[in-house]
Design goal:
- By secondary structure, this protein is of the alpha/beta class.
- The protein has two domains: 177 residues, NAD(P)-binding Rossmann-like Domain (Rossmann fold); 111 residues, N-(1-d-carboxylethyl)-l-norvaline Dehydrogenase, domain 2.
- Helices cover 52% and strands 13% of the residues.
- The strands form two sheets. Strands 3-2-1-4-5-6 form a six-stranded parallel β-sheet, sandwiched between helices. A three-stranded mixed β-sheet has the order 7-8-9.
- α3 links the parallel β2 and β3.
- It is globular.
- The N and C termini lie far apart (43 Å).
- 46% of the residues are buried.
- The site of NADP nicotinamide-adenine-dinucleotide phosphate has 26 residues, from α5.
Length: 298
């Protein structure tokens, strides 16, 4: 059930004495960290590129110079960065999280990464006396701005319960799906469906165009029928407006399908989506996922 903002704020009252650290201020990290600020948490941020941190100064965040400094100053650290390589740097870098040798912290990795890297980082965290939860999200910038993400977590039940009030600030649903890495596995599964939807929408629109059906009419038909969904509405508007600025960059779905393939995904639609998005990445990687329509129309 959807919680209104007041209910969400009440639910956080036992947690918001905790100091929050936020690493990664990309398309998702900025609106997600803003939700925590709005809910009254003290938030310290770190981002590799400094201009993104500066853009948040007016919202009252503190800025840490490194992950090392950030974890020392906070209790619970969220991470929302691109990929496994970024996670390795944030944990293992010279000024990384592990270099601080803290204890008693909870690190919540919300990035879409491999189950394997979560298992590695969770083990390293636990050796130091910290805890780790993988908690990737379904939903994009709009859902992040509205605190309406769907969060799928992997880790210890007691850790999940401790941080659930925070997750409920960020999302309309937070669900524990298994042990460490299980959240990542669930996320790779849902993003497989996302790849299918994006490619399916693009192919449907192109087929209609080939047969002289106006794109606007085709999208109206989709959006009013049984195939309608939030994704088709938002991405249909992007196609109509010829606006491919990334909300969810195509390079990320190309990465997610690579990760899913490495985890054993090899079914017919998955093979097609894998090939399409890998081919699209070089030219359209920094554009939105729905720029796949440009690749398919070539
Ligand atoms: P984004 O806009 O591309 O931002 C990526 C973030 O990762 C930036 O803060 C970037 O720092 C940081 N980063 C990249 N490589 C790094 C490294 N080696 N060391 C330190 N920081 C590094 O990505 P996003 O759209 O916010 O997505 C973040 C994650 O959430 C991804 O795993 C993505 O698949 C997933 N996701 C995205 C969406 C969506 O709709 N956008 C939805 C669900 C899940 P710089 O600013 O310095 O480059």
């Amino acid at each position: 059930m959807k919680l209104c903002t007041t209910q969400k704020l009440n639910n956080t009252s036992t947690m918001n004495t905790k100091k929050i650290g936020w690493i990664g201020l990309g398309n998702m990290g900025i609106p997600m960290s803003q939700q925590l600020i709005k809910a009254g948490y003290p938030v310290t941020v770190y981002n590799r590129s400094k201009e993104k941190e500066a853009s948040l100064k007016a919202t009252g965040v503190a800025i840490a110079s490194s992950p090392n400094e950030l974890i020392q100053q906070t209790d619970i650290v969220f991470i929302m960065v691109s990929n496994d390589e970024a996670i390795s740097e944030i944990f293992n870098g010279d000024s990384g999280l592990l270099s601080a040798k803290t204890t008693g912290k909870i690190i919540i990795n919300m990035s879409t990464v491999s189950p394997g890297i979560s298992k590695q980082m969770a083990a390293l965290c636990r050796e130091q006396g910290n805890d780790y939860l993988d908690a990737p999200v379904s939903g994009s910038v709009k859902q992040a701005q509205e605190g309406q993400l769907v969060i799928m977590a992997g880790g210890l039940p007691e850790t999940f319960e401790r941080v659930k009030p925070l997750l409920e600030v960020l999302g309309k649903l937070a669900i524990l799906v298994g042990d460490t890495g299980a959240g990542n596995s669930a996320k790779l599964a849902i993003n497989t469906l996302l790849g299918f939807h994006a490619q399916g929408l693009a192919e449907t629109v192109l087929f209609a165009q080939q047969n002289n059906i106006k794109t606007e009419d085709m999208l109206t038909i989709i959006n009013n029928g049984a195939m309608s969904n939030v994704f088709a509405k938002i991405k249909g508007d992007a196609i109509l407006n010829d606006n491919y600025q990334a909300a969810f960059a195509l390079k990320h779905i190309a990465k997610d399908l690579r990760l899913a393939k490495a985890e054993g995904l090899n079914s017919p639609l998955a093979q097609a989506a894998y090939q399409t998005f890998q081919a699209a990445e070089a030219e359209h990687g920094d554009e939105d996922i729905i720029a796949v329509i440009k690749q398919i129309s070539k």
